[in-house]
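Reply to dn_fold:

You asked what the input looked like. This is it:
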Amino acid sequence: MAKDPILNEDIIWRGRPQVVETPRIFRLGATLLLLTAATSTSFAFVATWALSVSPAPLLGFAAWACTLGLAALQLPKLWHSRVEYILTDGHVVWRRGPFRRAIARKSISYVRIFWHPENPNVGDIELVRAVPTGALRRRLLLRLHGLAAPDKVWALVRGIGSRSESNAGGRCVSQRLEEGERVLWSASPRTSWRRWVPHGKRAWQTLAIASFLLLTLGHLASRMSSNWASLLAAGLTDHPGTLVALAIGQAISMLLLLGLTAYLVHSAVVVRARQITKTRYLITNRRVLIQRENEELHLDRDQIVDVIDIPGFRGLHNVFLVLDGPRARAVELSGAFGETDRDSHLRPVLESVDDWESVSALLLRTAPSVPPPANRPQADAA
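and this is what came back:
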């Protein structure tokens, strides 16, 4: 086997992205920039035909926005297309030319798998390491994009064999268990009307921004109607080109604001309410598995050192899993210590469950019913 020249460890596996796509946040940014460029171009025509002024500043801004939009669409694809992933005896390495990032296999607390919505045999792996909470809190993860059979790659990282077949992303995670693994407990979050209430300060701030944009949209609509009445009375109908350009520019501006408002409301309210109804929790004799649409969380039970149950609405409980990270027991952005501001990805938390006593009894056992394979990397002691 070849050796990694920097880590001086045997290389077990190499891989590259099989599907290279632009991340959603970059696609949204590109859409915003391209619509802005179209608006600026329309107003440049209006300035030239109606006011007889130079369109150079507006056209220059449109060219700048269009260039940035196209760059946001293409540069991430170009960057990820040349990335290589390396698995050694002790590390998972992300490499692109002289740039490298690595995470020790024994320090990985859990993994998220994001299956491609159109190709159930391709997905991303996000390796997460538990870190201290409070003042020392930081984010430490490594994401491998566009992998073929990501569940097999994760099994290889764990040092075990995998029986997973093709198109695994289209099947329930309970149908892809390891040999000798069995489900001991399974449940879904109990839902209520409270799932539509924004959760956390960030969600409320996002909703406040959306409300401000909605008020701005209403104010602009009223002002535009009065301005159009004045322009038509002044004879704008004699210049049909100017009329069309102005209508297109204003329509794109209104559409941009409306789309941004809808996106903020969706991210602050709808996303969480929709996600919690599509989540499934499973506890096996080896792992804790959480599945939600195309996203999965895999957590070995030997990483869990404690559970914290927080009473919720109508007798339901949120069960937070305390993980044994390198040199620190921690909950990575779980909310167990007041960290309510978080992204929408899965976390090691079982939300809104009513059978929390069974969960605690299962997870606090000293050892799983069936011991894990002997060659699996073990976590550092706390």
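The CA atoms of residues 51 and 141 lie 55 Å apart.
Hope that clears it up.
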